[in-house]
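A quick aside before the break. I want you to see a complete sequence-to-structure record at least once, exactly as it would be stored in a machine-readable document. Don't worry about memorizing anything.
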Amino acid sequence: MKILIMLHTILICFVALSQLTACQHISNEYKTLTLKEGIAKLSFEYPHEWRISLIDTRTDYTEIRLFAPTLKKYNTTILASSMDILVYKPDDIETNIDDLLTNTVAKWRDETNFQLLSCSDLQIDGHPAVQKTCSHDLKLVDSTTHQFTENTETIITREIYFFCQDNIWNITISLNADASEENAKGISHILETFKVID
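That is the input. The structure line, written in tokens, reads:
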């Protein structure tokens, strides 16, 4: 009987340890987010100092939002970089991702000093994707008065679109021009480790 109790205890400890290991950071630099519910099943590694501010999972829509640590400048708090992942079912099976990308980037054209920097093809977890990169100025809000100021920050925005599992995947990346190289490295790592789970 004692042997059975010992074996049972060892088994419980082993299961608990396995679950703990799955939740631990992969390294001192990165955490892993794995999402297995809702329309988007995915996994990626992100820098340990970033925070996830939103995970919204539904049967026809998923959104995930991440932020890097903020910058302090001009008596205001400035986002250094952020990433928004949006997955949804297309309204029309003939939806063209090039058109979606063009329409999305068009909304930035009204921003001050808008510039379209590049258009390119890339792969996200082996899936063909298209991206446009633009820059524009963003007016800052004073953290005391909560009013817009005359101060602006240059933001680099990347819009990425691809089709996968009959859904549209849109990744929007915003990077402050003054952000550190570490933020750019963090964004690259997220994209390199991004996996769509079948």
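Two observations worth writing down. The longest helix spans residues 2-23. Confidence is low (pLDDT under 50) at residues 1-25. We'll return to this after the break.
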